[in-house]
Amino acid sequence: MSSVRYHKINSSDWQHIWVVGDIHGCYSLLQSRLADIGFCREKDLLISVGDNIDRGPENMDVLRLLNEPWFISVMGNHEAMALEAFATQDGNMWLGNGGAWFFDLTQEEQQEAITLLLTFHQRPHIIEAENESGRYVIAHADYPATHYQSGKTVDINGVLWSVERILRSLEGNSEIIGGADHFIFGHMIFDHIQLFANQHYIDTGSAKSGKLAFYRLQ
User: What's the rounded Cα separation, in Å, for the pair 51 and 148?
Assistant: First the structure.
């Protein structure tokens, strides 16, 4: 089983740090919202919670952001599905979950998409940042443990797919995750950013709702 990759950013390198919910190929929406918040590409950092692709119409434009120094991303389950499709030559699961855009690309575009998506083999599953407001942990779906520790072995499928914690929270059984002050997740769609214990859920269903949420970390 693949191990979970952790990455810590130096918050002092950036003026403002924002975390964005699942973009899902909605490049124009992203650009509009970046203008709304006054994002500065020279001084600010944007962290994506993953699921940059599928469902929306502008997947290549979003993928090319991976080349930008102001944009970083953890892996989401949709990137994981794409990597699985490349590895097994079986794209049915990806195709059934919004991956049809890839098969409509030209051969040259497909090669560019593959090259960019393969970088997720090196990209983190979990990003940590710390500033005077506390320690922040960003992952796609969950941090599947009761206490956070950088480098700790946790279930990779839990990080990418798990909804167990949020379902418990929705039933009124939310619990603090120890080891950090704030956890920021995507994956589970809500109308607005939701907070349960110290867990922020920021996926607002961009491709269907036309809404893209941002969490200002710094």
Answer: 23
CB 83 within 8 A of CB 99: no
Confidence at residue 14, expressed as pLDDT on a 0 to 100 scale:
98
Residues facing residue 137 across a β-bridge: 128, 183
Q: DSSP characters for 25-43? A: T-HHHHHHHHHHHT--TTT
Coil vs helix vs strand at 101: helix
pLDDT for the residue 181: 98
For helices 107-118 and 77-88, angle between their N-to-C axes, nearest 10 degrees: 120
Its pTM surpasses 0.85: yes
Q: Which residue has the tokens 């083999």?
A: 121
CA distance 48 to 18: 9
Q: Which of 24, 78, 125, 182 is catalytic?
A: 78
Question: In the prediction, which pLDDT does 142 show?
Answer: 98
Residue 182 appears among annotated catalytic residues? no
The number of angstroms, rounded, from the C-alpha of 48 to the middle of its chain's C-alpha atoms is 4
Task: Return the H-helix or E-strand segment holding 116.
Answer: helix 107-118
In angstroms, rounded to a whole number, what is the distance separating the alpha carbons of residues 85 and 45?
Answer: 30
Residues of the chain with pLDDT under 70: 1
The pLDDT value given to residue 137: 98
Q: What are the angstrom distances between the C-alpha of 62 and each of 6, 29, 54, 149?
A: 23, 11, 10, 31
Rounded to 10 degrees, the C-alpha dihedral 121/100/60/2 comes to -10
Contact in structure between 75 and 124 (CB atoms under 8 Å): yes
